Amino acid sequence: MEDKTVKRYYQLKQKQKEIEQELSELRGEIVQHCAGLELSELEVGSYKIKIISQERKEFDEAKLFAALPDAEVWRLLSKPDTSKIAGLIKLNVISEETIKDTYSVKQLSLLQVDKK
């Protein structure tokens, strides 16, 4: 492997970090602007903005472990993984009622920008 390959990879990763930071800042500005106007959709010039609200469950590992004392079930999870937990609920391995006090719900705003 050549030094230039590793160097280029490093450079691109640095650019990626910079781009992700700028995207985060711009996203925050756009979401905040739409929230201030109480709009979930907005057209700006030739762009259409759409804010999609979503909920995400964030599990408390200690509470989840206490609610699911069965070691076999816990081994299937290994750590609180929202998609695995949802799958176990769908399969009736565990119930929503059993874990109702083990998570908090976080509201997310997803940003979608399309060109008209």
Provide an overview of this structure:
With 116 residues, the protein is of the alpha+beta class. The protein is 49% helix and 26% strand. It has four helices and three strands; from the N terminus they run H-E-E-H-H-H-E. It has helices at residues 3-36, 61-67, 71-77, 82-90, and strands at residues 41-44, 47-59, 103-115. A three-stranded antiparallel β-sheet has the order 1-2-3. Strand 1 and strand 2 form a beta hairpin. 3% of the residues are buried. The model has no long low-confidence stretch (mean pLDDT 86).
Q: Could you give a short description of this structure?
A:
The protein is α+β, with helices and mostly antiparallel strands and 116 residues long.
Descriptive tags:
26% strand, 49% helix, single chain, 3-stranded antiparallel sheet, 116 residues, alpha+beta
